[in-house]
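User: Could you walk me through two proteins back to back? I'd like the raw sequence and the structure tokens for each, with a short line separating them so I can tell where one ends and the next begins.

Assistant: Of course. Protein one, sequence then structure:
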Amino acid sequence: MTRDKKTFAALFSNEKLDELFPKSRTDQFFDALLGDAAEGAYDIRLRFKDFEPGRLVFDLELHQRPRKCLACNLTYGLPNVFARHPIINIQGLVNQISQLMDGHGRCAGWKLGNTVEITRQLHVVPLEINIE
């Protein structure tokens, strides 16, 4: 059993992660949070970032929507919101990731890191998953 970044990058392709966390989930999140999906300032995408022994790292990418502002004050509190929100459903997402590991271990716990501003149009919330 090979456990390296290349192996996990193949398991967690952008296409596969878009199936796990479809674009429609962002609209559902903003509809529940704000009462109208069109009010949301960003779209959320799940992306594989890295593998280290005992740990997988994904990013919840927040892509600014056209004619919206991705201000830091909108995104810095998100790890706490995402960790508890039933539509984002981090625990369910981690369970699905564990099922996709195809004999390369299983997920044993997770945490969300602090929001990082990559650019004014892109912020990320790291999702760190411990694996056994």
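----
Protein two, same layout:
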Amino acid sequence: MPMSRISLLKGKSPEYIRALGDSLQRAMEESFNVPKNDRFQLVHQHEPYEMMFDRFYEGERSDDFVLIAITIGKPRNTEMKQAFYRRLVALLVESPGLRPEEVMVVVSSSQGDDWSFGGGRPAASLLGVRS
């Protein structure tokens, strides 16, 4: 059950934001074996003064820059992460049309007792199945 935070500057349409989320979910399904219905995404839109980033990485970044932070329960190996990064960028280039240089991803893993899926109950026993 990955939980993703997508941060970008304000001003994009609901369709653009939906395309970001859909591409992210598809990449996680294909590369991280995340089930289709296992989708938890938060979108944070920021004023320009609230989101500061290096604009000169791999060419100049624009106001289309997106930072995606994903917390996963079940750790993935380096090969899986690298395949995920490549697939995610390819999908984001397709839809909503980002340049590869505009995408930054941070993947963090956590332990089973760091999660509760609801009701105040720890999710440790479920993370082996859904993460």
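The longest strand covers residues 3-9.

Let me know if you want the two compared in more detail.
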